Amino acid sequence: MGPGSQFCHVRGAKFLDAQRLTKTYRVGTEIVYALRDVNFAALQGDFVVINGPSGSGKTTFLNLMSVIDRPTSGEVFIESQATSTQSEGQLAYLRKTKIGLVFQSFNLIPVLSAAENVEYPLLLQRRPKAERQERVAALLAEVGLSDLARRRPNELSGGQRQRVAIARALVSGPMIVLADEPTANLDSKTGEAVMDLMRRLNEEHCVTFIVVTHDPAVSRYAGRRVRIHDGRLEEGEGDGVAASAA
Amino acid sequence: MGWRLPLRSLWRNRRRTILSLAVIALGTAVSVFVLGFLENSRLQIQDSSVQEYGNIQVASPKLWTGTTDGYDYLIAASDAERVSALLAADPAYRGSTRQLQFPGLLGSGRETHVVRVTCVEPANGVLDFGDHAVAGRGLVTSDSAAAFVGRALAKRLSLSVGDPVMLTLTTANGAYNASPFTVVGIYQYSTEQFERQVIFVPLAFGQRLLNTAGVDRIVVSLDGIASTEPARARFTASLVGTGLSLEARTWDELSPFYRQLASYFSALFAFLSIVLSVLVFFIILQVLTLAFLERTREIGTLRALGTTRQEVFRLFFAESAWLAVIGSAVGLGLGVVLAGAFNTVGIQWLPPGTIDPVKLAARLGPTTLLVPLCVSLVATLLAALYPSVQASRLRVVDALRVE
What we know:
The complex is a heterodimer of chains A (246) and B (403). Chain A has helices at 58-65, 88-97, 114-124, 129-142, 158-170, 188-205; strands at 14-27, 30-43, 47-51, 73-78, 81-82, 99-102, 176-180, 208-213, 224-229, 232-238. With 246 residues, chain A is an alpha/beta fold. The longest helix of chain A is centred in the C-terminal third of the chain and has 18 residues, at 188-205.
């Protein structure tokens, strides 16, 4: 049993539900649609890969799911709670406790060591030191970086950095991990290793993973495959549950 | 992480941190040094003013307001006796002298000069200037027709100890009077004007010359400058009980030169502090704004991980607080070293109107250290407010887009 197992949530429960999401941007006098009337739901334990070309709205979709951005219309429900009416502080709390993020460029804090980067979300939650140390050690062991715990991000390879980022995303026992192009800055072999790791963690921790990528090779890891094109979602192969094009 | 992250961010951007620290430290050090220098000058003038005026003088208000009719401001001998006894009962009292001042013409046979005759009780240690003698001696109780003259006056009239001089004056009732007396000593003082104008004679002799038994003031010496204001309040209360129309004035009220200079020094330091703090403020603002721009993506990441706006503000503000504390502390040390080195070198200069060169020095004390420290701290922290607020207000998605 992995260190995250104590946070293993009820597989199959609906955690995330997006309804009629639209996101527009104003470019000059023109209104540009990044997402159009999108419905999407993720169940606990899903491993969803959202595939689409550049500019298709992948990142916008992920930003809305991770509540770091608000939709122009529509609603994102997290554990059946509407997020549009929540304050910045409440959304920050959601991100801190229930959502893990993995970025394309790793986005580690450069002045902190690998272990400290992983520890950061626990510090935000004011967890006791002993618990923090135990969780960090366990997660680093799980991503195979125990020996490099004290290294700074600039002393790690791209693959190692992404593994630290994955450990950071998982450390606080989130319900869902959202990954934006996690393999884009990695060579194919390292990319595969990272995807293998995420898939394994998904299975062991029953944490929902939503991975957006333009890399078709990543799709083979999907439990459920969704395609995004011109701001619309199209359910692909797999055991998809609630993705639909508007 | 509360203190670790800000400190490490400072360490990571060493060049920028060193620049910021140098600006803050230099600003603080210059302020410490200049304030110490001005404070030393102020204290020198304060000492000299207290020497000249005593801590407190008690006299008729007419003496100071100039609304006199002849010598109607004089205090009768018996009243002066009574008041002196009253003042002597004060806990801060160290000594006093009854004084009488009047103008006269001092002639050496070859030349005459207008002087201010200051009649004092000899050898009582208060304003008799005995310890300022550079030739001969100060006045003693057995002196009668004796004068203790300033070095500049002695030089001008070519006087030496033992020389006879003639003083011509108008008596209290308007008659002419002239009297010969002997120079028993020559004193030196900080200003040439004082040395040239003031001659000291025994009070009894001066009263005979002026044809009065009265005095025009009672000069009081206290156990310290800090005792002045409280003692004045007590004197004022005591004087009310005497039924006499007398007023107690402090040395700084009597010394317009000190007041002007003290207010000039204050203005000078305030101006310098403002210039330095504005300089520190804008340089730090610039440095921190650049730092904030460079770290936009990092701020986005922190926010995306669930760090609240307040926490981001605190992180950035804590960095500036470290800069402020370290920079000001280093500046304080640097200022102390600078002042110490300056005092050791012992540069001298001749202020306008003085005869003897004065050693330039910076005197450091709680005020001269705390004021620059606080100014630097406040300027740096104020400069940090804007970038810290900006950092906390960033939209997460916008921040994450920045490469």
